[in-house]
Amino acid sequence: MFDRDRWGEIFEAIGKNKLRTFLSGFTVALGILIFTILLGLGNGLLNSFLSSFVDDAQNIIFIRGGNTSKAYKGFQENRRIQFKNEDFEFIKSNYIGKVEFATPRIYRNGSAKYKKESGSYSIRAVHPDHQYLEKTIMMNGRYLNESDVNERTKNIVIGRLVEKDLFKNEKALGKMLNVDGIAYKIIGVFQDSGGDNEERIIYMPYKTVQLLYGNNDHINQINLSYNMAMSTEQAIAFSKKIEEDFKEKFKVAPDDQSAIRVRSFAEDIKETMVILGGIYMIIFVVGIGTLISGIIGIGNIMTFSVKERTKELGIRKALGASPKSIIAMVLQESVLITSVAGYLGLILGILALKLIGNNLEEFFILNPKVDTGIIMIATIILIFFGLLAGYIPARRAARIKPIIALRDE
User: Fold this and answer.
1) For residue range 130-169, what is the model confidence (pLDDT) as tens digits?
2) Are strands 201-205 and 60-65 parallel, antiparallel or unpaired?
3) Segment among 106-115, 134-143, 181-190, 259-268 with least mean pLDDT
4) Top-confidence range, 105-119, 288-302, 335-349
5) What's the predicted TM-score (pTM) here?
């Protein structure tokens, strides 16, 4: 393997066939390069998809009410479906073991004022479970708790940018904030991975908002997370079960698509994975096709190499070279070309992905990267098949009879 004379002979043979060697190596390098870039772009699409869930739990289900689109069981069409606290309690009591966290949501916009600073912000009235569904990260203080909800306290949690806008260099924790003319105590400051808009939100106990803004028990939306032990198919079936139950509860026609809207991230994940699966399949077909052409090229160059060296190989056998040593020499040459070209293509592919970076974000390709381990395995497999591609001409070389080889012109 480390015979200096043999390696010298291999490099001499490569030097005599520079163009063929270059073309074969170029095909192999191009194959790995294309495979690396395509796989990286596919991962970029996956990263873009996953980024949409960065600020929410991935096992979340949204339940929203709308207007009925048809008459049903004595009720007229265009009837407004209004969720109430009892519907939230219905979720908690009827799906025990299937629901991890659940919260109602009430949406409002409010004007907040502290000293001379003021601004308009989104208000979300929620249950304490909302923290886990939204992946809210507490920077200071605490989140809302059950006591805040049941006692209808005027405690609020504000986003990092609300604190920055209104309190400047002061700490907001423990201070009073005027929202729509009502004084609230700030018990916590949070940050959120969802971006600036998510950090310009004020959270309040939902029962407090119901009391102060309408004296009712109305809610706009119900969010919940399903048990992670469920498979994707089970989660989708669960969301459909919730939709059926709510339609029955509100006397809505089973085929009415606008009155009760239930959306599960599991459905989005399934649809996206099907699309990504198709993309990855195309990537592997194109990439493997290119790699196969490289392997064929290696086989061709070794066949020509053996043919041009017929007399030389005959002399070797006449001087006592064993068939095994002839095969080993030819295979070493094949592996050398495949290895060098393959790793060169790998390096170029990784560099190309680094240059691309987030420049294709507008095409939903975010941070395209590849697992180096996967590409290394692909390269090793390529080298293995390069070894097989060189074996056929190597075996042919080993079978050359010295007397026939010496007659070859």
Assistant:
1) 999 988 999 999 999 999 999 999 999 999 999 999 999 8
2) unpaired
3) 259-268
4) 105-119
5) 0.67
Q: How many CA atoms lie within 13 A of 132 on its CB side?
A: 14
Sign, Cα dihedral of 186, 191, 192, 198 = positive
Question: Is 252:259 a contact under the CB 8 Å cutoff?
Answer: yes
Q: What's the chain look like in SS3?
A: CCCHHHHHHHHHHHHHCHHHHHHHHHHHHHHHHHHHHHHHHHHHHHHHHHHCCCCCCCCEEEEEECECCCCECCECCCCECCEEHHHHHHHHHHCCCCEEEEEEEEEEEEEEEECCEEEEEEEEEECCCHHHHHCCEEEEECCCCHHHHHCCCCEEEEEHHHHHHHHCCCCCCCCEEEECCEEEEEEEEEECCCCHHHHCEEEEEHHHHHHHCCCCCEECEEEEEECCCCCHHHHHHHHHHHHHHHHHHCCCCCCCCCCEEEEEHHHHHHHHHHHHHHHHHHHHHHHHHHHHHHHHHHHHHHHHHHHHCHHHHHHHHHCCCCHHHHHHHHHHHHHHHHHHHHHHHHHHHHHHHHHHCCCCHHHCCCCCCCCHHHHHHHHHHHHHHHHHHHHHHHHHHHCCCHHHHHHCC
CA-to-CA distance for 392 and 301, rounded, in angstroms?
12
Q: What count of residues does the chain have?
A: 409
Q: Which of 265, 196, 191 is nearest to 228 (CA)?
A: 265
Residues 6 or more apart whose CB falls under 8 angstroms from that of 66 comprise: 80, 81, 258, 259, 260, 261
The arithmetic mean of pLDDT across residues 325-340, rounded, is: 75
pLDDT digits (tens, 9 = 90+) for 361-398: 777 777 888 877 777 777 777 777 777 766 776 676 66
pLDDT score for 212: 94
State how far the Cα of 322 lies from the Cα of 330, in Å rounded to an integer.
13
Say if CB 379 and CB 294 are below 8 A apart.
no
CA distance 349 to 191: 37
Cβ contact 260:351 at 8 Å = no
